[in-house]
Design a protein that fits this description.
Helix 2 runs antiparallel to helix 3, helix 2 packs parallel to helix 4 and helix 3 packs antiparallel against helix 4. The strands form three sheets. Strands 1, 2, 3, 4, 5, 6, 8 and 11 form an eight-stranded mixed β-sheet that branches. The termini are far apart. The chain is rod-shaped. The chain has two domains: 150 residues, Acetylcholine Binding Protein, Chain: A (Distorted Sandwich); 89 residues. It contains five helices and 14 strands. The protein has 332 residues and is of the alpha+beta class. It holds the Pfam family Neur_chan_memb. It comes from Oryzias latipes (Japanese rice fish). One of its GO terms (cellular component) is membrane. It is found in: Membrane.
Length: 332
């Protein structure tokens, strides 16, 4: 019986009433069709130069040609045809197509890995203007209240969290631009904002903490004696480690605080390496291999003690063997 009721209702809607999907669902010329949109997020795939998301878009509108009298068809069912549009007796059409969207958004990584990104999904009609359809946010209701869904819907049962990003805000907004005429398809649109924040734990453990420890340990190279053969190896190993950490970073096109800190540590360690080379070179010099230049002797024995307010040792008096030399006198 239910199958016969469905067949009779479909014949009534599409054959007897001669339904034409090419015509807009308006009773009179000049009427506007209200289309309600809602976005359901299922998964955030990745974030590179673009943001890929798996979503479902709720489309809801009323088509008076698809309405029927419930008393004439008392079966409990909803009509669905090949485009997966659900129709209720009032003519309300509900279409829920799944899709994968790629939203291009400007990525600002100045405060990596504590950055957040704002990726937007903008929906508008390319074929109909604001006088033909009016784009609205979906409305929901319960037994007592009715409200507008001004956010991206997330179903906890079907949503899969991303391992690198977390969603912190997901508002939705209907925009109308008064400076653009209603005859243009750019007069109105609906924008869904997806604000995501990076999970920094991985980068803190693998980049920030090692760099801080390396910069701390690099200063201890001065406590190693100059005769130690591992002094240069000790500090050069830090420089190699920092180079590998830099290669693991993401390709960055803008200024980055973490990147600047990493470059500062690399320059600091490089200076320490050069300093150690100079110290070792001076330490292993001997009178038989090198001759102290005149400017070196003057700098370390005369100028540097004066700058450091050091007193120079007095010259020792000459020692005489036997009787003291007799001084010459003007007298006799």
């Amino acid at each position: 019986v239910k199958t016969n009721e469905e067949e009779r209702l479909i014949n009534y809607l599409f054959l007897e009433k001669k339904y034409n999907k090419e015509l807009p669902p308006v009773e009179q010329h000049g009427d506007t069709v209200d289309v309600y949109l809602a976005l359901t997020l299922s998964n955030l795939i990745s974030l590179k130069e673009a943001d890929e998301t798996i979503v479902r878009i709720d489309h809801t509108w009323i088509d008076y040609r698809l309405s029927w009298n419930v008393s004439d068809n008392d079966a409990q069912f909803e009509v669905a045809y090949y485009s997966n549009v659900l129709v209720d007796p009032s003519g309300l059409c509900y279409w829920l197509p799944p899709a994968i969207f790629r939203s291009s958004c400007s990525i600002n990584v100045n405060y990596f890995p504590f950055d957040w990104q704002n990726c937007t999904l903008n929906f508008t009609s390319l074929t109909y203007n604001a006088k033909e359809i009016r784009m609205l946010l979906k409305e929901d209701a319960d037994e007592e209240n009715k409200w507008t869904v001004e956010w991206i819907i997330i179903d906890p049962e079907s949503f899969t969290e991303n391992g690198e990003w977390e969603i912190i805000h997901r508002p939705a907004k209907r925009n109308t631009y008064k400076h653009i005429p209603m005859e243009s398809n750019k007069h109105q649109d609906i924008t869904f904002y997806l604000v995501i924040k990076r999970k920094p734990l991985f980068y803190i453990v693998n980049i920030i903490i090692p760099c801080v420890l390396i910069s701390f340990l690099a200063t201890f190279v001065y406590y190693l004696p100059a005769d130690s053969k591992v002094k240069d190896t000790f500090i050069s190993s830090f420089l190699k480690t920092l180079g590998k950490k830099k290669q693991r970073g993401e390709p960055l096109s803008k200024g980055l605080v973490c990147f600047r800190y990493l470059m500062f540590i690399m320059v600091l360690v490089t200076v320490v390496v050069l300093n150690c080379v100079v110290v070792l070179n001076l330490h292993f010099r001997t009178p038989s291999t090198h001759v102290m230049t005149r400017w070196t002797k003057r700098f370390f024995l005369e100028r540097l003690p004066r700058i450091l307010h050091m007193s120079q040792p007095a010259e020792p008096e000459p020692q005489w063997d036997g009787a003291l030399p007799r001084r010459s006198s003007s007298v006799g």
